[in-house]
Specification:
474 residues, Chloramphenicol Acetyltransferase, six-stranded mixed sheet, 13 helices, globular, lipid biosynthesis, O-acyltransferase_WSD1_C, lipid metabolism, transferase
């Protein structure tokens, strides 16, 4: 029997549009060893690591007449050189040139006639560095059979993958014929006749649950998914009709600054409830405030930016790649509040209310409703954005805790890692954040026409963190 896509994963093939590519990406910057790092080494690493993960050599095939979900079939003409590509930046190899490259390649949809992933080796960065830019489709990332290709490449131990190392031999299975696909679909329907009814019943229950919790946590929000009449998200330049062109900006900050801000709050009654994630959100809130003022937008004491925030529950020093618990919250960022410390306390209180008061929307319910089972927080964030109406929130912010020790691709040490979260329909900006080895790294993905000043926002975020860290009003 063929390996059939679940309805959850198949939906990401159906939801993909020209302006909303359904893949998640990453940009990892490395320092090569003294003897260098080249394309052949990267191919060797990937061949070695995906040996036990068949999904990376499989493609999607539709069932004739679409009488059932598509299936995964082995790609008989699998071509590693197509998926792993080599390019270089012109001198002087500045970060801005890397940003422009990412903005060009990330919006391009993956070829559905091939396995749904790509990796770019980008050489020529200043100071001898190189970057790996990855793209992985949400339909492939199911958390069981395959993860983001970026997680496959890096390892916690330094070391080359040698030619003598055991690599699982892979031979493509014969693809099923059209007749076999139809026959298997009929057999599945006979064996599980109540599947559709169960899916509909479960989906309706989850829709009601999600709708009720969204309304409670975000102040009677309007969800097109559950048809709940309520107040929509505030008007914002962050919501706009988007095209296919993007701007992408990355910025690096020091995790210690966020910890210092959190420690300085030790005088408050609820200080122990302020998390690093709250400090990150307060930093972004201050950045939004400055950005809006620079745009000449009207900012009053009641002005807010509504954010969809998939939250991982973790401490100050996460040691693993993945979080154990995920919640999706809708929070109003108080950009109208001029005081940095007051903004932080308001955000911490709002987040605590949702997570401890049972008002946060559980990731499982969202997965059942929207068609995704999140393997990583950034995948969750991107999928949430596609599931929820633009009228519910203004911007998506995902914050993923990463390991606080170095990772390697062969002997090359990863210096920094930046997420590239896709834009949902009607969303001009998405923000992904990853903490790694003492740093907090931002990736701002924006529509090229709606956000020509995304670099101003990036600098405003840096300035906002400096304001919080200075403690002038704490």
């Amino acid at each position: 029997m063929s390996d059939r896509l679940t309805s959850l994963d198949a939906s990401f093939l159906y939801l993909e549009e020209g302006t909303t590519a359904m893949h998640v990406g990453s940009v990892m910057v490395f320092q090569p060893p003294a003897d260098g790092f080249d394309y052949d080494q990267l191919v060797q690493i990937i061949e070695h690591r995906i040996g036990a993960i068949p999904r990376f050599r499989q493609k999607v095939r539709d069932v004739p007449g679409r009488i059932a979900n598509p299936v995964w079939v082995d790609d008989e003409n699998f071509d590693m050189s197509y998926h792993v590509r080599r390019t270089g930046l012109p001198r002087p190899g500045k970060d801005r040139q890397l940003q422009d490259f990412v903005a060009r390649v990330q919006p391009r949809k993956l070829d559905r006639s091939r396995p749904l992933w790509e990796v770019y080796l980008v050489e020529g960065l200043a100071d001898g560095r190189f970057a790996l830019v990855t793209k992985t489709h949400h339909a492939l990332i199911d958390g069981v059979h395959a993860l983001d290709i970026a997680h496959v490449i890096v390892d916690s131990e330094r070391g080359e993958v040698g030619e003598d190392d055991d690599v699982e031999r892979w031979e493509a299975r014969r693809p099923p014929s059209s007749v076999e696909l139809v026959t298997e679909a009929v057999v599945d329907a006979v064996r599980r006749p109540t599947q559709v009814v169960d899916l509909v019943r479960g989906g309706m229950h989850d829709a009601v649950t999600v709708g009720m919790r969204a309304a409670e946590s975000a102040g009677s929000l309007l969800s097109n998914l559950v048809r709940t009449a309520a107040r929509p998200a505030p008007d914002s330049p962050l919501n706009a009709q988007i095209g296919t062109a993007r701007r992408w900006v990355n910025l690096a900050t020091d995790l210690q600054n966020y910890r210092a801000v959190r420690t300085r709050l030790g005088r408050g009654a609820y200080a122990e409830d302020v998390t690093i994630n709250d400090v990150v959100l307060a930093t972004i809130t201050g950045g939004f405030r400055t950005w809006l003022l620079n745009r000449g937008e009207a900012v009053s004491s009641s002005t807010v930016v509504r954010a969809m925030v998939p939250v991982s529950i973790y401490g100050d020093d996460p040691s693993g790649m993945y979080a154990n618990q995920v919640m999706a919250c809708v929070v109003n960022l108080p950009v109208g509040e001029p005081g940095a410390s007051i903004r932080l306390h308001q955000i911490a209180f709002a987040m605590r209310q949702q997570m401890e008061g049972g008002h946060a929307v559980g990731a499982t319910s969202l997965a059942n409703l929207a068609g995704f089972a999140p393997p990583t927080l950034h995948a969750l964030g991107a999928r949430l954005g596609s599931a929820m109406s633009r009228r519910i929130y203004n911007v998506m912010i995902t914050n993923v805790p990463g390991p606080q020790s170095p990772l390697y691709a062969g002997d090359a040490e990863m210096l920094s890692t930046y997420p590239v979260t896709p834009l949902a329909k009607g969303q001009a900006l998405s923000i992904g954040i990853t903490s790694y080895n003492g740093g907090v790294y931002y990736g701002l993905n924006a529509d090229r026409d709606a956000m020509p000043d995304v670099e101003v926002l990036a600098q405003s975020i840096v300035d906002s963190l400096a304001e919080l860290a200075s403690g002038r009003d704490l």
